[in-house]
Every structure is written in C-alpha cells, then in structure tokens.
Amino acid sequence: MFDGINIICFSASYAVAFALALLGLWARPAWRRPAMLLAASAGVVAHTWYLVTRVQELPAAPLSSPHDWYIAVAGLLALAYLALALYYPRRSLGLFMLPVVLGLVGAAALSQKTTLASLQIPRFWTLLHAGLLMGGTVAVLVGFVTGIMYLLQSSRLKRKQPIDDRFRLPSLEWLERVNSRSLGTAALLVGFGFLTGVLSQLARGNGASVPWTDPVVLSLAAMLLWLIVAEGFRIIYPAARRGRKVAYLTLAAFAFLLLTLASFTMQDTLHGENHSVESRSTPTEAEMFQLAKGVLR
User: Fold this and answer.
1) List of residues 6+ apart from 110 with CB closer than 8 A
2) Pair 40, 20: CB distance under 8 Å
C-alpha cells in the first residue's frame, strides 16, 4: 500500500503537469507555468523518495527488477524534462516528454518487483552495468522525443505555417544537435553496458558463459549493433548528420529499445540465472578488474 501511494503521488503530479501543458494549447494564464513546474518538481521529489526506498529494501542488488528499472528511467527522463522546462520556458516540451514518463511509470506498475540480478556478481559491477544501460535507454528516449519534434517542426516550416505562441518547439538546429548527440551517447553507453554485462558473466567462473541465446541478450545485442551502424553511418556519411535522416535513425533505435524492454519485462529470471546463493565464493572486485584489463588488451 505504501508503494502504491507513492507511485500514485508522482504519477498524479506528472499527469497534472501534462494536463497543464495541454491547457497551453488553448490558453496561457499567468499561473499555468508556475503550477506546471511545481507539479513536475513535486513529482520528481516523490519519485526520488520512492527510488531511495526501493534501494533500501534490497541493497545487495538495487534497482534490478523490471519495476525498478522502469521507475529509474522514468525518473531520469522526468529530471531531464524539468531541467529543459526551466531552461526553455516558452517551449512545449511537456507535450512530448511527459507522456513518455507516464508510459514508463505505467509499465513499472505492470511489471514484477522481483530482482533479476545475480547475487553472485559484485554489487559495483551490477550497479555499473545497470547504470550504463539506464543512461543509454534515456539517451535513446531523448533521441526519440527530439526526433519526433524535429520532424514535426520541419513539416511546419516546410508548409510555412505561422508560428503560434501556444505551441512553440525548439529550433531545428537545436533539435538536430540533441538528436545527433543522443545517438552517439546511446551507442557509447549501451556498448559499455553490454561489455560490463559480458565481463560480469565471465568473471563468475565455474564454467559460466555468456547466454547468447537469451532473449534479453539477443535483443540488446541487436540494439547495440543498430546503434553502432547508425552512428558509423552518421559519421561516415555527412548528409546523415543533419536533417530528417538522423531523426529517422533515432526513431529506429527507439523501435529496437522497445523490443529489448519487452524481452526484459517478460523474463522471470535474467539470463537464465538461479538467484539462490551458491556455496562458491563470488568474484572479487580485483578479479573483475583483471578480467576487464585482459579483454580490453
């Protein structure tokens, strides 16, 4: 009940902020923007409190369940929205970012709270692996949102539609720059996240290997491959660095992300793990670092 009240609190706050963003399409009273920022801020505070509570409940493997994963990603995206709303006060960013935040919270409410992380892997590497993949996920989501805004803004300018103060988007140059950087950032973070996951599996020893046929591993590998190809294409082919092409690349990355998240959500265990504590000792931090050095040489 305590968990449910917290989820309702911050999801309701985001819903109020989104409703106020929608109100701006018809009217912009003086109180609307302060109320919208207050609602979003209250949501971020309650969201953070809930995440801290979840970490305290399972300190050995924090934020390692599908429920916690969605909540953490939603929190990072909500924080990004709040920062952008403060920096670009006249832009209609809430119409695009807040629905994604609410969608992630809704997915969290429908997902299991049982941890999927192996307790045989050091806590540092579990956090590093999860943190990198969360950052990559947020980068893909930011790219998706800015890609949608770019295509919409480009279409409006192409049709020479008059600028409406009630629905203002960032400039094409800004959207293009954020879109490109989010693609490169996502490729980097997901790549290192995938690498730390592989190292964590190999460091377990006792004949442990990477479960390449696992749906989560397959879908994540497919997304990583697409991100690398897309970023390489963007770097090598100058025309892909600008305009609608980079927007389409980030939209495709979002499709791969949806596939990965679906595989992750449907798993009862992660990578076929048995979460019972085995008699053998877990790999130490030093062993993990030695393995990392050997792989990177």
Assistant:
1) none
2) no
Q: Long-range contacts made by residues 148-156, C-beta under 8 angstroms, separation at least 24?
A: 148/96, 148/247, 148/251, 149/96, 149/175, 150/175, 150/176, 150/179, 150/244, 150/247, 151/244, 151/247, 154/243, 154/244
Does this model's pTM top 0.85?
no
Rounded distance between C-alpha atoms, residue 66 and residue 263, angstroms: 10
Alpha-carbon distance of 45 to 216, in angstroms, equals 31
What are the tens digits of pLDDT across the range 121-173?
A: 666 777 788 889 999 999 999 999 999 999 998 888 888 777 777 788 888 89
pLDDT digits (tens, 9 = 90+) for 197-244: 888 777 665 555 667 777 778 888 888 898 998 888 888 877 666 778
Cα Rg of the chain (Å, integer): 21
DSSP string, 146-193: HHHHHHHHHHHHHTTPPP-TTS----HHHHHHHHHHHHHHHHHHHHHH
Tell me how far apart the terminal alpha carbons of the chain are, to the nearest angstrom. 51
Cβ neighbours of residue 56 closer than 8 Å, sequence gap 6 or more: none
Q: Which helix (H) or strand (E) holds 259?
A: helix 244-265
Q: Are 100 and 134 in contact (CB under 8 A)?
A: no
Is 179:137 a contact under the CB 8 Å cutoff?
A: no
Q: How far is CA 195 from CA 38, 89, 132, 270, in A?
A: 40, 39, 10, 16
